[in-house]
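Milestone 3.1: sequence recovery, worked example.
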């Protein structure tokens, strides 16, 4: 069973450990000093930023992180994505990671995403859909989205999280059931 709770500052050492894992670092490209993690995740943890960082637990054990937000709360990102696909008012987006390599490749990603979507539909009743851009090179990520039922609705050039990646992205969509 997957459960969720808001990330707190007490979770930063765990998050830092996850961000340092090669399979996460490859795609998230975050600084991992304690100061950088506090800088990047502290505002959401304290409720000072509109995004939501949620810690996923499987049978009570932390296994991953999902970030979700309304695209309208981040106008620059909204404008960049709107150049690639139509964005209905109230659309949300999410990003995700599985913390440790031993937990990957076992179907946890689609389970985590399905649970995250179910939670999002309940907690954000005005969201008509979710859009998730994924760098083309991150096949595992976009395959997890497909296995969860999201459909590819666009391809386009977006700023990558990791400068090592090209700008080519797929955009996936899930509509409110």
């Amino acid at each position: 069973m997957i459960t969720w709770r808001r990330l707190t500052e007490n979770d930063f050492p765990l998050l830092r450990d996850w961000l340092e894992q090669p399979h996460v670092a490859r795609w998230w490209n975050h600084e991992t000093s304690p100061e950088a993690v506090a800088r990047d995740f502290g505002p959401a943890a304290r409720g000072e930023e509109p995004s939501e960082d949620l810690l996923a637990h499987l049978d009570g054990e932390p296994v991953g992180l999902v970030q979700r937000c309304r695209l309208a709360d981040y106008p620059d990102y909204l404008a960049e994505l709107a150049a690639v696909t139509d964005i209905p008012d109230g659309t949300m987006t999410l990003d995700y990671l599985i913390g440790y390599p031993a937990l990957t490749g076992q179907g946890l990603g689609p389970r985590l995403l399905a649970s995250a979507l179910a939670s999002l539909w309940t907690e954000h009743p005005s969201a008509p859909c979710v859009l998730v851009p994924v760098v083309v090179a991150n096949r595992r990520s976009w395959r997890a989205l497909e296995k969860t039922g999201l459909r590819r609705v666009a391809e386009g050039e977006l700023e990558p999280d990791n400068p090592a990646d090209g700008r080519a992205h797929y955009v996936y969509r899930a509509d409110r059931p």
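The first helix runs from residue 12 to 20. The longest strand covers residues 61-70.
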